[in-house]
Hints:
Subcellular location: Basolateral cell membrane; Cell membrane; Cytoplasm
GO biological process, one term: innate immune response
Strand order of the largest sheet: 11-12-13-14-15-16-17-18-19-20-21
Membrane topology: Lipid-anchor
Bound molecules: adenosine-5'-diphosphate
GO cellular component, one term: basolateral plasma membrane
Distance between the termini: 91 Å
Oligomer: single chain
Keywords: ATP-binding, Cell membrane, Cytoplasm, Immunity, Innate immunity, Leucine-rich repeat, Lipoprotein, Membrane, Nucleotide-binding, Palmitate, Repeat, Ubl conjugation
Amino acid sequence: MSVQELVLRQRTEILNALCSSGSAEHLEQVLDILLAQGELIWEDYQNIQVPGRALYTNGRQLLDLVYTKGLETCALFLAALKQVLPKVHGDGLTFSGCCSNLEEKEEYHSTSTQTLLTQRPSLVSKLQCCIDDALKALVISGDFTSAECDEVRLPMHTPSQQARRLLDHVRSKGESAAKVVLQYIQQKQESGSPLNQEKWTPPKEVFKYQKKLSSSVSAQSCFLSTYGGTSHMSLDDIYTKGELELAHNCVDVHGPLGLEDILGTVGTVNEEADTVLVSGDAGGGKSTLLQRLHLLWARGSALQDFLLLFPFSCRRLNSETRELSIQELLFQHCCWPDREQEEIFQFILDHPHLILFTFDGLDELKQSFSDEHRLCCPTQRAPVHIVLFNLIQGSLLKGVRKVVTSRPEAVGPVLKKHLRKEVLLKGFSPSGIDCFVRKHHSDPTVAAKVLESLQTNTALLGLCHSPVLCWIVSQCHKELLGCGEGSPQTITDVYLMILQHFFQHQTSPKSTTGLDWLQEHLKTVLHLGKLAFEGIGATCYIFSGPDLETCGVTEKDICMGFLIQSKNMSSTHSKCYEFLHVTMQCFFAALYIVLSNNTDRSTIPRLFEPQNMRETGLSSTCFMACMPSTDKQERALEGEATAAETPNLQITATFVSGLLSQRHRSLWIHCCPTAVMEKRVRQVSRCLSKGMQKHFKSIPQPVEGEKKSMHAMPGFVWLIKCIYEMQESRIAKCAMSKLEVDHLKLTYCNIGPVECTALAYVLQHLRNPVGLQLDNNSVGDVGVEQLLPCMHICNSLYLRNNNITDEGIRKLLAKGIQCDNFRKIALFNNKLTDACTQHFSHLLKTKQNFLSLRLGNNNITEEGAKQLAEGLKFNHSLQYLGLWGNKIGDAGTEALASALESSKSLVWLSLVGNGVGSAGACALANIIKNSTSLEELWLTDNCITRTGVECLIQALEHNTRVISIWLRNNDLSLEEIEEMTQRESRLTF
Ligand code: ADP
């Protein structure tokens, strides 16, 4: 049979092999090879690679073209396929007669553009790990603009796709750009990677082991588990960048952090420590982020300073009941070396800096971190958690890098002591949500509809910052688009939506019995609910066959898709299962608490007071396999939920509140007696109101003369979220009626858009206006929009360091102008530019009771200052104006000074660090001359010279009101400073 016929006959198989994974990578690799071999010309390539078109269509187009091009092309095409397809995909195909000569063409190329084409496959692989640097080189050479760089770097593309986009762009730019890329690659090769620099190769056995390890890591990480039950989705296709931030402020960090920064030097707080913590909420994307790192490493695209990477899941380590040495832990849990185990382990001991461990979900480990039990000997056996804790603190295998993920609640001070740095994973940014939805839906019109419906429901949009919720919303797009008015508002609504979605997908239309969907599946809900509930009580997330049996879970229940088979559990067990996500387990536990006849009456009160959990024994007596018996006895004595359990209990309690909301009660009508339901609602309301009172009672009395202020204790935001889930304003009103504070401080409380929605819902019922301090959270523009309903009750709003842009400010001020109480705002360190100043200007003109405006450390220039001045001219109330750390300069200062010249209200003005020179200082002297209110003027860190200060001194001669003018760090000599201090004591240098 000719190769041409072979291509025709195997058309379906080839198409499936190329496209069935859903990833375009294989097809694109084949195209790279055919371009390089000259079998396709550039126009062919463009006809096949039509952006936005279905992958299968592109595949078919390629097959048609290859076939019509004849024998030789078909032979090369088969050879390319053979090279590109992983063995599993290529196994069923016949390649006989295919051309084996696919060597890169080495002959002389007349142009660099041509070289880019003939070396395309290897260039793609070389470029994908250094896209940013290659783009930098192109920007420096003037061949690329930053907008073009952004186009290449679109987060929806995988690194190899970004490399191809880069090459395609370069081609359209011509010879000079092509030369830059080739030179860049050459320089990079000459300087070599750190491994090459050592001019050293590891022993052969270690290399073999590395290959085995990386292929196993790659196989484990290429698909996302949440898609396991529904459709296969490769990580490459769906992975969307989450927002990463350092937990500790760091001056040398500009712009967002990337994956490489997790192990890079940036933000290191303890050079001695080896462990990096990635913390974030449940469903925030921690496991997925680790999975991405694993995949990139296994493919050679990132973390190439590490020769061996050992991934661990704490959830799986929970099931290890034996005592193990570190060697056994590595080899038995990650990858077994076929030979020379001792040599390989010795290599690990000798080269710790080449080894990386990752531990996913430290919060799911049954034992809380402690550094009491020291273990130093790598051959000594110990319980797995002890080995793990010693690795983290560095007493075992010092120098080996570790990345640990956890929810923040489970990270205590003892662990913090041993951290090299902490990185916070904040979920998706607004553009991340957009990108994820587009990746999730291959049909762009569906994606656009989903995004449109999210824009109209900002509460839901806020929820989508959490990747797991974004996934649910995308998964349930049909329900979402169909539900109009009743569109989901709360987290419970979203989980109910997926519950219904899964049930309806699994039920064939014939089986409908006239019952509503929940009634029809009540048994499944109760079986899975019991499993989830018992599991939460026992910190158990992986369930064996007998566990399922104990809870009555049947094969049919499993088929519904909420449980997935656990990867990597040792084959001595029968099949093991876990819930799609831990939040799903909490949701089922909540369903069980709400619907079951078998929970006792103290379950709800105990759930809302996790600290009493053990005392009263919510913890399960099932699941003997989950817990070693010694551990059980130990824990029974502890009398408290561990730090690791509390977050799950809190999530469960939040769902219980949501499920008992009036809005959902009709759902339960046929599933549970009304009287029981009502009793449970009363119980939850009582718990929430008691919880709130407890908080309020803990507020200390104010010192005389000061305002009564409350700093939120852990758990306050959670209670607020529970109240929001109930969606009953009566409860919110009742909870807030007893809060008597002037200032509510919620700094560093991990408040994102979701929390803002809940806060606004509850705080709007406060009786008296408060100052709301939300500094150092992740409110963002969406969060700001969520806060609008409680603006009327805020007299001051502190939103320092919250990722807010001009757009957020526009919405905030449009509402703020209408709120009589709203008088102060602090927005230090956000992302504001001149585009927001017109709104402030309007506010200042309109609101003649506005007192304080602080806009420090943003990006406001002379233009913005001029806009502000327009408003200030007409304002008679502003007392505090803070513009520290902007770029206002002399011209901006002059505009402000002229607007404030006759102000009778201004008390305090800061223009620290604004490039203000003497011209600006002289203009400010005019305010001093006239003002009867100004007390302090801050001009530190500017470039004022003697001339400017002379103006200020002269003005002060006519003014007795001003207390001090701060002039540290300006352009003055020591002698000048001495002389002028003597002339005017109110100047501080
Ligand atoms: P965590 O470990 O923080 O609880 P996961 O990583 O398990 O969160 O994320 C939950 C789900 O959210 C994933 O199964 C996936 O569907 C989705 N998801 C999370 N992060 C991403 C991401 N970066 N890109 C695409 N989807 C993501």
